[in-house]
Amino acid sequence: GTFNVSKAAYNKWLKDHGGVIINISMTLRYTASPFQVHAGSAKAVIDSMTRLRAVEWGSQNVRVNAVAPGAVAGAEGFDRLLRKSFRTKFESLVPLQTHGTVLGD
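Request: output the structure for the sequence above.
Response:
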């Protein structure tokens, strides 16, 4: 999805007018966690593609960046896959020493 959408946006508009692409990644690839090889690998590709496209398209006034939110408590993957014993270690690797929360909870 990320590759196809950014390529279509570039061909239809950005190469002639410039603009910004913001990809959504995640911090999972920096700190591995059990049962997440598929997600971590996919996000590593998005991070690499973001850097490569920024270099390729930057001279045409197209900025390519990514945001990478960390783990969020209450999300299905967090609650189902992140064991309590691993959460303490995981949180110690995060600069703020905590995880995100869903607003309203």
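The longest helix spans residues 37-57.
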